[in-house]
Amino acid sequence: MKKELHFTINQKGGCGKTHLAWSHLSRALDHGITATAIDTDPSNSSLADYAGLPVKTIEIMDENGLEIQPEKWDKLIYYLLDTVTEHLTVVDLGATAFQSFVSYCINSQIMPLLSEKFDIYLNIPIVGGEALNDTLNGMEYLVELFGDHTKIVVWANEFFGKLIDEHGNSFEETKAYQSVKEKLYGVIYLRKSSQLHDMAIAKMKTAKLTYEEVKLNKSGSFQLLEMMRIKQVLDNTYQMMDAVFDIPTTKQSKEKTK
Question: CB neighbours of 26 closer than 8 A, spacing ≥ 6?
Answer without folding.
Answer: 210, 211, 234
